[in-house]
Amino acid sequence: MSADYVVKGSVAVITLNNPPVNGLGLATRTAAVEGLRKAQADDAVKAIVITGAGKAFSGGADIKEFNSPKALTEPTLHTLINVIENSAKPVVAAIHSVCMGGGLELALGCNYRVALPGAQIALPEVKLGLLPGAGGTQRLPRMIGLEKAINMIVSGTPILSEKLADTALFDEVFATGSDLLSSAIAFANHVADVRPLPKVRDRKVHYPNHEAFLQFTRNTVKAMSGAFPAPIECVETVAASVTHKFEDGIKFERERFLHLIQTPESKALRHAFFAERVASKMPDVPADTPTREIRQAAVIGAGTMGGGIAMNFVNAGIPVILLETKQEALDKGIATIRKNYENTMKKGKLTQQKFDQRVGLISGTLSYADIAQADIVVEAVFEDMGVKETVFRQLDAVMKPGAILASNTSTLDVDQIAGFTKRPQDVIGTHFFSPANVMKLLEIVRGKATGKDVLATTLALSKKLKKTGVVSGVCDGFIGNRMIEQYSRQAGFLLEEGCLPEQVDKAVEKFGFAMGPFRMGDLAGNDIGWYIRKRRYVEKPEVVYSKTADLLCEMGRFGQKTGAGWYDYKAGDRKAYANQAVNDMIAKHSADIGVERRKISDQEIVERLVYSLVNEGARILEEGIAMRASDIDMVYLTGYGFPVYRGGPMFYADTVGLFNVLIAMEKYAKGRHGDAWTPAPLLVKLAAEGKGFNS
């Protein structure tokens, strides 16, 4: 059973009990219906209270049953709500902590709702590309009004229960510190004999001149929702609460829900939802693996990356010592962090108290001896193995036993770095993405000697830092940068063959990327890629790159930081302006290497860029560098601006069909640099079997 039943005097109490958030899975729904029937049959019971055990009333659908037959097996949530609505005895929802999605729809089916302050109330289905499918779009407007209901449902944002106390949603919001169950039972006894029983469905939605308001809302939501169909569908279904009878509105809501659940956008969002939750699970690292306590952190390097990493720790309440080689660099780094927090405070997103607290958690030093007692130290120095060696040999000498030694390397061999120490089991890669205090992705690189407790600790730390931690094995570039290298190679070849940076960027941004490869290069710094290519020319001379990016760097155009890269930038303006000298350089280079420039379609641009990611992702999977295709998708959704409504490169390839991906690759293999399109064996195998990466 996942719902408990007890009788307290003349009140039956049904407690949803399906940790962690009392998801409304089949067993919970069945037990709740049985409890309701039991209460109906007991003459001593005059009223019924439904509440939730632990830390939630109910978070809604049980995610373990998503996309499974159990989700539609009777009793469904619709059936449970119908049983409540048809009860001959009053049913009171006693709400605390979390009441979201199907949990709120369940509460709206009750005759009364009481709550504690601080409960988060939401219908967040839009975030999965859906709309509330169990009456939420029809009942919520009847209780809080049309305008508030549309705002809640279209945004999916939680609202605290006390902020809804002035609406009809709650019959009573108890005082802070009240005992919810005893207060709810007292309320139930008070209304036990009230007849007729109030039903949300019997209420009307009143909004003067609703036609004009709804049309204004449609226009606004369409403009803001872009490629996502769910927000406007939410508006239309909520509109039905005004324009349709209740039963017709419920039928319309169901039709639109079933439509949305089949859309590629919703499938992609649901894929991302599950991918994020599974990314932290490693089959050989049990959930009960002991973790090391992280009470003090240190960061080596106070530059842009080191400062951003330090901010992550202090945002989570962990003191940080920044280590630099020169006082000037240290002072500049700490001043930059302080300025970042001041800017956040000016925007009203940080209080003076929080500002003081965070700044107070940062200290600086020029001595390795001062960081010896840190529980974790993150190295964020120049991407050069010689520099890393110097740092890690010093860390090995001074850090206390059990300290985690982490490297923020973006491409280098973590096993080689671990070899610079006598404690390789304590070494791990923590590849933050710039700006490190903003970007969600944390690529966690597991070396061959990395201890399971170190991996478990780092995964737990990623959650504390509010990052999406994705585990990668050791290879050049790990998951993200190894794949982006093939993407960047194709972008360079496209320039040589006939494109200009603006066309490539616009094509891939129209596809949905946050920014194209050339704007991304300007943001990251073109000199970083130049340095990596120079290393590649020595280590992998057989791999061909376009020389356009090298020529750009030779012009001193390193990107936004120099005000000039593939584009020009003006002070205080991040907008990219095309530069004629750069375009002339590209055209001249094509002539110099004997390539006749041609017109290239946006479709070819997108396919070559995206399928190069897919093919390298397939190699990463078959080599075991990534545990799951969904891990690769999470890297690209949270670290590289891949459009979330396309689900990540591997999921997108599944959507297109791997057979179709291979056909396109065979076509490009006949063109210039065709050897770059040799398909990964895993891609060929899955396509032949009619499967996908995420099957």
Structure, described:
The chain has 695 residues and is α/β, with parallel strands linked by helices. 47% of the residues lie in helices and 12% in strands. The protein has 27 helices and 19 strands. The strands form four sheets. An eight-stranded mixed β-sheet has the order 12-11-10-13-14-15-16-17, sandwiched between helices. Helix 4 packs across helix 8, helix 7 packs antiparallel against helix 8 (230-243) and helix 12 (327-346) packs antiparallel against helix 13 (352-360).
Identify the overall geometry: globular
| Strand fraction | 5-15%
Number of strands: 19
What portion of residues is helical? 40-55%
Give the C-alpha Rg. 29 Å
Number of helices: 27
Top keywords for this entry?
695 residues, alpha/beta
Topology readout:
Blueprint: E1 3-8, E2 11-16, H1 26-41, E3 47-52, H2 77-85, E4 91-95, E5 98-100, H3 102-108, E6 112-115, E7 120-122, H4 136-144, H5 146-155, E8 159-160, E9 172-173, H6 180-191, H7 210-225, H8 230-243, H9 246-260, H10 264-278, E10 297-300, H11 304-315, E11 320-323, H12 327-346, H13 352-360, E12 362-365, E13 376-379, H14 385-398, E14 404-407, H15 414-418, E15 427-432, E16 441-445, H16 452-464, E17 468-472, H17 480-497, H18 501-511, H19 517-524, H20 526-539, H21 548-554, E18 567-570, E19 573-578, H22 580-592, H23 602-622, H24 629-639, H25 649-656, H26 658-669, H27 681-688
Parallel strand pairs: 2-3, 3-4, 4-6, 5-7, 6-9, 10-11, 10-13, 11-12, 13-14, 14-15, 16-17
Antiparallel strand pairs: 1-2, 7-8, 15-16, 18-19
Helix pairs in contact: 1-2, 4-5, 4-8, 5-8, 7-8, 8-9, 10-24, 11-12, 12-13, 17-23, 18-23, 20-21, 25-26
